[in-house]
Write a structure and sequence with these properties.
heterodimer; A: 273 residues; alpha/beta; six-stranded mixed β-sheet; four-stranded antiparallel β-sheet; 9 helices; B: mainly alpha; MetI-like fold; 78% helix; globular
Amino acid sequence: MKIECRQVFKQFGAVTALQDVNLAIADNEFVTFVGASGCGKSTLLRTIAGLETHSRGDVLVNGRPIAGPGRDRAMVFQHYSLYPWLSVTGNIRFCRQLGAQTEGRTSADVEAASGRADALLQLMGLSASANAYPNQLSGGMQQRVAIARALMGKPEILLMDEPFGALDAQTREVMHDLILHVHRLEKTTLVFVTHDVEEAIYLGHRIVLMAPRPGRIDTIYDVPLPRERTQDMKHSPEFLALKRRLLDRIRETSGMATDLEQLARLNRQETSA
Amino acid sequence: MATSSMWAIRQAIPRRAYWVLALSGLLIPLVAWAWLSASSGVNPVFLPGPLKVLERIRTWWTEDDLLGDTAISTLRVFLGWALSVVVAVPIGLFIGTWRSVQALLEPLTDFVRYMPAVAFVPLVMLWVGIDESAKIAIIFLGSFFQMVLMVAEDVRRVPLAQIEAAQTMGATRREVLERVIFPSAKPALLDTLRISMGCAWTYLVVAELVAANSGLGFSILKAQRFLQTDKIFAGILLIGLIGLVIDQLFRLLHRKVFPWMHTR
């Protein structure tokens, strides 16, 4: 197993952010986390990243407990993570300035690194913007830079926290196919948090549905689609059926279902009055 | 269309309109001043006219040592301010980065900040003496505590995602500080330095209370003794003018050093 969470608990004062989380993610798997807000999906991702501490339980990567963040688990954030004073290339090559990634480097490494930076520029369609500053780019292009920068250090695991949440629908579709391509090419293990059920199904091999109060894993679904995804699968009966099941379950677990029933009851009373 | 674009909230206005407004903002008070001082019933001792003040600046230049006064005052302000920068920037950087340092130093700084620098004058004379270092010390005291808090605030404004992204790329604490927090806060820090330079100038007159025999602040104080209101006006205007120039230089520097902030 690449990542293992065993009975992970996290307490924020009186709030239980994560309760008894057990999860195993295989090497090269693509797993998506969905759930209503407050279900702890981002907290769980950040715990795996080592950016949050957990109160009890174990988080293992390659069988070893994690000790804080590390270069084996790069993370892509929703926004504000690029370095605006560096060009696109400067951002992508940022990790090359860090001791952890340059120990005992030889001239061959340096050459390989600059080759990799160029390859990532190509892969992400950023070659024309290599010398631009982040604030000159659109939101979609900025996220391409963030992904390329995370990949530069060849992480075994790529963690993505609602990376496309701020993008428009068309840009999002392009990014979905891009990230699937990256996953195939780089062979990283990918954990992806989203609030968008369709995104979760289209990208994931498995979907972890989480529920709030206390934050916990509710159900884990296998996505009944071939691993090679195409946009037209979004209209397949399997896709639509799973989408409905997920949406219903999220509504049930978030307490929204009861809210809606109450609203309907109120409406009925008003019309009858 | 022209009028509505002038009142569009936070929108750019035509370049020419900007300059016309900026010049009007400076010229209207000047004209009002000239008119008020020329009107009968206003004692010229209380309100000397612009021409009289200009004439005073000229004689200050030819008969007294205006250049020398300006130079020594600028030097004092600059040294006091620079000393503040050297101490306040690292301390503010640490306060903004580590909650533990914040807990240790921020309440203390908040406390001292409210103590009037003027009241420290006798103590400074006792402790530091009455030579140049005393004047620099007062300017330091006046600007330092504000600067620490502003620097800390600038550092706290660095987006957490920038820091966390570096951590997930394997950056050490020191690397996060040197390669992310400091460069990210730099533009805000330069603005803080610009604003504190203004603070430093406001303490000039207080600083030159201490056994000075030269300087713009000292000249204002001396003019007060002889009721030379035109010289007081001249001194105040000169300080304002120097401040305006320094401020513009800082803004120019900002555009030169951080081109990525000014490109779109």
